[in-house]
Amino acid sequence: MPLPFGRTPDGAQASIYALENADLRVRVTDYGGRIVSIETADATGVSDHVVLGFDSAAEYASSPGAFGALLGRTANRIGGGCFTLDGRTYHLSKNEKHATLHGGKLGFDKVLWRVTHDDPARLVLRHVGPDGDQGFPGEVSVAATYRLDGATLWLEFEAVTSQPTPLSLSAHPYFNLAGPQARDILDHQVEIMADRFLPTDEHQIPTGEIYSVVGTVFDFMTAVAAGGRIRRAERQLLWARGYDHYFVLCDRGAAGPRPAARVRDPHGGRVLEILTTQPGTQFYTGNNLTGSVAGRGGTYRQSAGFAFEPQGFPDAPNHPEFPSTVLRPGEIYRHAVGYRFGC
Questions:
Q1: Count of domains for the chain
Q2: Distance between CA atoms of 127 and 91, rounded to whole angstroms?
Q3: Range of the domain at 129
Q4: pTM of the full structure
């Protein structure tokens, strides 16, 4: 049964839903489809929260960033807040000076999703984005399903559109595998199954180039501490104030979900593996957390958590050299993300 989770900015009542099995205890709110909490055991059997989060919809609404939220219509940035599709230019809602981020000012993270199925193993949320929403063409109908399978939380997307439109859905949970009292995630051991990454300009918009990770601070092909190279005077890290980059997976043509990343907390031994059907993932080290908000465990400062956001290539509508993220009428958008926990 859902429980009240406070009011959204427009006065609607938000709710919180539970998914539970022997391995995981998950809480999700219909406000932004957000993962509010995930509890799982460490190597000694002690269970604790591993996701940064808050206690009400109002706190999520007033906090900068997209804590735990579903991202759409397009995760990441669209440079200049505009794109041209089939000869027509569309101007989007801009929530950064030089870009539209995660769908604009009122992206999917700011809407109240409709719950159509709710039991301890599966939660289905639906949302219809009208034609012209945040400047995007076409009416888009989206279903997002959270599903437990042993120690894996699956997030499965399905969508259709009435007009050609860019669509690249993802989610933005911040993880700290050491638990809510941990200071940061800089000692977490990170492995990313990616041989290339997308460099950006000073506004964090992809340049259109694709670089090899070999010999760079972006080489996570073998496990490296998240903070091991994060302070180096490397232009890409300086512009982003840490890692906030898209990694292109090695086996991007494989069918079905495959491993994208693996993170281990060296103290408690918890391990998180990210699986996806997408060609790559954004890796973000919480660079813009400033201590201005307090949630579970205290104030959230820089590198309090990390996020992996599997998605299509960012700013793809403005880069014909990138794989297309355009969904057209008659097509069905299907992608999945898996969060697999272990010790």
A1: 1
A2: 22
A3: 3-342
A4: 0.97
